[in-house]
Specification:
This protein has 223 residues and is mainly beta. Helix content is 4%, strand content 30%. It is built from one helix and 13 strands. The chain has one helix at residues 48-57, and strands spanning 3-5, 35-39, 63-66, 83-85, 91-96, 102-109, 113-114, 124-127, 133-143, 147-154, 166-173, 192-193, 209-212. A hairpin with a 5-residue loop joins β8 (124-127) and β9 (133-143). The radius of gyration is 20 Å and the shape is globular.
Length: 223
């Protein structure tokens, strides 16, 4: 689980930057600024109406299209990249040419990304082990089989090439929970009341309450 400082009474949390095609993602979206989630059902591979509905439900997503092996030479099928950059449109896309659902994490560094409708997606800062800060955007995509998912357009500086764009990615087969209806008898109440909270009457201290931002099956990291 990931934790963040809960809002002080009377303050409203910020609007979320991310979106999901499923309303119950078991993840507090305001805890993931700069992260954009597309949790796509496997049925969209064979259902054009479902694919259109899934695209419409994710307000930043450029689009979804089926992958047809017959459109490619047999020798080229093994060379299809998991993350594709279009040289003309500067589009970054997830490609799944397999028969399995796949989990794809894609991080774009130091380049603005434009989503559907010309919307510039909000980025956040990543800090590496040496303390260096960089602007980045991360996409988390549960990709159906034999599907292309078009994430956004890269807004390159004048003279900048796609070869200069730095990406990190992690793509692997989706391992569904063997018992998604599993329950546990023990319960923990949230937010957790920790040292320095209002209940211990510590004068001058703000509340040290923590909210669990993701539960079992959460769509940020629990795949």
């Amino acid at each position: 689980a990931r934790f963040y400082n809960a809002p002080i009474d009377g303050q409203q949390p910020q609007s979320p930057n991310n979106s999901s095609s499923e309303p119950h993602s078991n993840f507090v979206s305001t805890a993931g600024p700069g992260c954009y989630i597309a949790h796509l059902a496997p049925t969209i591979t064979t259902d054009d109406e479902a694919a259109a509905a899934a695209t419409a439900a994710i307000d930043w997503l450029l689009g979804i299209e089926p992958f047809h092996p017959d459109d490619f030479d047999a020798d080229a099928l093994g060379d299809i990249p998991e993350i594709a950059l279009d040289p003309d449109e500067h589009t970054v896309s997830v490609t799944n040419a397999t028969a399995a659902r796949r989990v794809c994490y894609v991080t774009v560094y130091d380049v603005p990304v434009v989503g559907r409708g010309g919307r510039t997606l909000s980025s956040r800062v990543s800090i590496d082990n040496d303390g260096k800060e960089r602007e980045c955007i991360t996409f988390i995509v549960l990709c159906p089989p034999t599907t292309f998912v078009h994430l956004g357009h890269l807004r390159l500086d004048r003279g900048q090439t796609l070869a200069e764009v730095e990406l990190d990615s992690d793509v692997r087969d989706y391992e569904e929970h063997p018992d998604p209806d599993d329950t546990h008898p023990k319960r923990i109440g949230f937010p957790l009341m920790c040292s320095g909270s209002r209940d211990d009457n510590t004068a001058g201290d703000l509340a040290a309450e923590y909210l669990c931002t993701q539960g079992e099956g959460g769509h940020l990291t629990h795949y």
